[in-house]
Design goal:
647 residues, 23% helix
């Protein structure tokens, strides 16, 4: 037997205290009842009866009017207290709501009622039931199971975040915030503008809860932003800066651009806007160290109008090749003295004191690796050094696997190099487009490899030719002219050059906030010393690893503000600066069509108020405030009828 009796509850129960004020009109009404004055008439019985009836009728009319007015005020008070009914069988059933508020920079854009983020927060405070506890998730913080009274100040204080969680990450976080109780009604409300800066899929959202995608869109999608900037020459006597400007839904033909070096204006010109992306080249003279701030002067811009870029005197990477002079000859043509400090040792003449001073070590076709060399190379790689391993045609496999266990067995069948992993960062900027037909280098003999992490180059027989494992780049074949013509292929130069350049993580002109950045600083510190980054009033100590002649630092969520940061040590300021910028993916004014993601457990909406009402109604809750408003109007109408027709 199901018990169907209902319980009335109130969203604003404190308003019911106003019912006590209903005593006032009753008291006033009693004191204002006028007494009938007697008037002398002839002694006629009929007139006496009329007088008695008129008196009773007038008193009844006044009491009816008083009752109507009391009922009107009572209904109004109940309407403002927002009553609702729940069945007793559902009163023990709880509702869980997780609310994600996207506070990324794109929500600075103006909507119909103001800034998108501020409007979202105001709607949450206005429409969400005050008595219910909710969990609020943003890109930076999480508030777990609190009422709006407790969250009021925190929500108002939410600021814009330079990082934005991906749609998948938000969905995973939301799922973890729900309880494991299967008897609760779970609702996830996703408040965002739903930019197309990362992919969204219905599979991200679990069927264990109901999801509402609530989209708020800007009034104008026009934006002109700085997409990127780079120096086209690394030479100190030619600081040519290229700035790429992107336009979207824009009607302007030109936009002013200013360039500052350490707050001093060095260039001011205009960018001609002909295409979606437009590049302007600026000559900044011959100064060695530059801290450049690029700024667009466009009053409608709210996203991407400033970019910081740093250029310091280029550092030379230390490269050591261990092998015969003959085999190392082609390396001297790649690692030239104007960009690298290249040195070489033979297997019988290794200076082990130089190993820890290198950034890249090349083991070039050694048949047997000495035990001391293996020990030093392993220590070198653990400290962040990069190793290129080019095997000989007659290696001792077990000996090589002591260094890194990837070699399996020799393969004497000739094959060609046919596949390139274009997605690997090593090939970034090498190819304008993917090449389907090129002159395939031939490999006569090679080794099959195992237990590697990434394949960069593959052979026609599907065996790898170049793989990466941790800090090791390993070829499966000797590169001498008797075994391969790979040395004559154009591909060898960018591969070996980029491996050397990437061995020192300090050649980037600027870094993005919110992404993992690994940076090598040329400093010599004791083990107890740490470096810190400073900008005006902001400072922080990043994750760091002290090596013999460098300090490797790692940044991600910090710093929180774009600009130039100086590297400091406990002893003194250093001449090293780093430039940090916000991620430019939010500058793209394109948005997902959330209607296309609707299904049985996902709904798209543009009204938070309607969404909250639907959640309440889905939990068998009947809102009654509208009925009380209707009854108030009905009693007002009855009072008017009494005043007009009751005699």
């Amino acid at each position: 037997m199901i018990y169907l009796s209902s319980i009335m509850q109130f969203n604003n129960p404190n308003i019911l205290y106003a019912l006590a004020a209903l005593v006032i009109p009753i008291v006033v009404h009693l004191f204002q009842l006028r007494k009938f004055q007697k008037t002398s008439f002839t002694n006629v019985k009929f007139l006496k009866e009329i007088s008695v009836e008129t008196r009773k009728s007038s008193q009844l009319k006044k009491w009816l009017i008083l009752c109507c007015r009391l009922l009107i005020f009572t209904c109004i008070i109940f309407a403002f207290s927002e009553p609702y009914l729940t069945h007793k069988k559902t009163t023990n059933r709880t509702t869980e709501t997780v609310l994600y508020i996207d506070n990324s920079f794109s929500n600075k854009m103006k909507g119909a009622k103001g800034e998108l983020l501020k409007v979202k927060i105001q709607e949450v405070l206005e429409h969400f039931p005050l008595h219910e506890k909710i969990t609020v998730l943003t890109n930076t913080k999480t508030y777990t199971k609190k009422t709006l009274d407790e969250l009021n100040q925190e929500l108002i204080a939410i600021d814009y975040s330079p990082t934005q969680l991906s749609y998948k990450t938000v969905a995973l976080k939301a799922e973890k915030l729900f309880s494991k109780n299967n008897n609760t009604e779970k609702h996830f409300i996703y408040l965002s503008d739903f930019q197309k800066n990362n992919a969204i899929d219905t599979s991200f959202f679990s069927k264990n809860y109901k999801t509402t995608l609530l989209q708020s869109s800007p009034v104008s999608k026009s934006n002109i932003s700085i997409d990127s900037a780079y120096f086209s020459s690394e030479h100190a006597n030619n600081n040519k800066l290229n700035v790429v400007v992107r336009q979207q839904h824009n009607s302007l033909k030109t936009v002013p651009i200013s360039v500052y070096n350490n707050d001093s204006l060095v260039s001011k010109t205009s960018v001609v806007l002909k295409k979606v992306t437009n590049t302007i080249a600026l000559n900044l003279g011959t100064e060695t160290n530059l801290n450049i701030k690029i700024q667009l002067t466009y009053p409608k811009n709210t996203l991407g109008n400033t970019l910081y870029i740093n250029k310091q005197k280029p550092r030379k990477q230390n490269v050591l090749a261990i092998g015969s002079r003959e085999n190392n000859l082609f390396l001297t043509k790649i690692y030239t003295q104007n960009e690298f400090n290249f040195s070489q040792n033979t297997i019988n003449n290794i200076d082990y004191s130089l190993i820890n001073q290198q950034h890249l070590i090349i083991l070039n076709e050694l048949e047997l690796l000495p035990v001391n060399l293996i020990r030093n190379i392993i220590s070198f790689s653990k400290n962040g050094g990069t190793v290129i391993c080019i095997p000989s045609q007659k290696i001792d496999i077990s000996n090589y696997n002591t260094l890194t266990p990837v070699f399996h067995q020799p393969n004497a069948f000739e094959s060609r190099l046919t596949k390139i992993n274009y997605a690997h960062p090593l090939f970034s900027g090498v190819f304008e487009k993917q090449v389907d037909h090129f002159q395939y280098p031939t490999i006569k003999t090679h080794y099959t490899l195992k237990q590697y992490q990434t394949v960069l180059l593959s052979l026609e027989n599907q065996n790898p030719f170049l793989v990466k494992k941790n800090s090791f780049y390993i070829f499966s074949s000797a590169l001498n002219n008797q075994n391969s013509n790979f040395k004559q292929a154009p591909l060898i130069v960018p591969i070996l050059y980029n491996i050397a350049k990437n061995s020192l993580k300090s050649s980037v002109n600027y870094y993005h906030i919110g992404k993992e950045n690994i940076i090598d600083i040329p400093l010599t510190l004791s083990k107890d010393e740490v470096v810190s980054l400073h900008r005006q009033t902001e400072s922080f100590i990043p994750l760091q690893q002290v090596k013999k002649n460098t300090v490797r630092i790692q940044t991600n969520e910090t710093p929180s503000s774009a600009g130039f940061y100086r590297i400091k040590t406990p002893r003194a300021n250093t001449p090293h600066w780093l430039a940090f910028n916000y991620d430019n993916s939010e500058n793209l004014m394109t948005y997902h069509n959330i209607k296309s993601y609707e299904n049985q457990h996902i709904k798209a909406s543009n009204s938070l108020h309607n969404t909250i009402n639907e959640i309440i109604s889905s939990n068998d809750v009947a809102a009654l405030w509208k009925w009380f408003v209707i009854f108030a109007l009905l009693f007002l109408f009855i009072e008017l009828l009494i005043l007009k027709y009751f005699k």
